[in-house]
Amino acid sequence: MKAAFDPVTLATPFFILSIILEIVLARLGKADARYETKDTATSLSMGLISTLAGTLTAGVVFAATLWVYQHRLFTIPMTAIWAWVAIFLAEDLTYYVFHRVSHERRFWWAAHVNHHSSQHYNLSTALRQTWTGGVAGTWALWLPLAWLGFPPAMIAIQKGISLVYQYWIHTEAIKKLPRWFEAVFNTPSHHRVHHARNAVYLDKNYAGILIVWDRMFGTFQPELDAEPPRYGLVKNMATFNLLRVAFHEWVGIAQDVARHPRHALGYIFGPPGWSHDGSRETSAMIKAREGAGPAKAPAEAAREAA
Amino acid sequence: MDEAFFVQLALSGAAVAVLVGIAAWAKIAKPAGPLDEHKARGMLEFEFPGRRIDAVWVASDGAGALAKSGGLALVICQAGDGFAARQIPWAQAVAASFRNGKLCIDLADIAAPRATLSLPSWPPKDLAA
Predict the structure, then answer these.
(1) ipTM, two decimals
(2) Could you say which of A52, A238, A240 has the minimum Cβ distance to residue B115?
């Protein structure tokens, strides 16, 4: 579902130019960024094909949103400033829920895992998008906004704004931003934590634009100087085959269900890494093994001690 | 889908090709060099914490390593400028095909189908069982 004003389409030239800028600055030694050719090709190809995949389910998403909007509780005007403030907060909270579910339940992780499958963290990683999000049905999480009375176009525009915001934070070139900004907004530092596979960083910082949701719901983790992020998956991929990148977790679920049909629900809706015999590790098990409870940045710990 | 969609798609495809070309030109991949035994053991410790390592074989080109840990083989293989790790039964590693100095291990994982390691010989006679 695309609104007449589509932030993502408008931002596409910015995506291209900023990737070129990040690469050139890194080449000149002026910015911290790493690009590997196959990895970059995979990320960008995943992004390009995801736009095609999105069009396959766009009709269903649009029809469902429109139907729910026709049964709305209120009529919220697109022209009111308060309505845009409200949709900003409501959509960002919805994104937090979507993102948390996408990490903590395997069915939705299967659609999201490809975004985390790069061992790099650069602007091209931001474009490594899902092909199966429409099938996974996470778009239904946004339907309550239409039921409340936000016009579908308004929801689509705010989703686009959120997506564009989340693009620029996929970089190692920007270290820490001013403290007030880091306190309120999702930043490159916070999102590096989210993409890291270090035990202490697993399942943290789900925010879209506002990091305050993570602070409120106990999933915030600052980036630690002593723990440089290692990017990628707990079990990294050993292939750049696009089909494997896009579908490997779906195939994994199917294999597990076929082998252990009595435990199908656990393999489909349990946390990633769940197994009926405990032979695999979930994020929680890895964190427990590594003793990786919530860790604070030294400055934050010192402030609290004082 | 209208004509504009296909024009946009074609332009996006061209942009992807240009960006990949620029990334290749820049040569700014991670500087991690080939594995030696010290690096391989460090990587094994990170990927398989707490595992006892009985023996390690590092690929002669440094593009991977294989370790015996009890009844398991711990395999590290190169993926771009990074590495991926998997564990398989030791017997499966012993039975892997070895031709022309290349050990080709079926990792039986859709996300990591196989690992190819350059080794002088395989399997090790004293640990084959």
Answers:
(1) 0.93
(2) A238
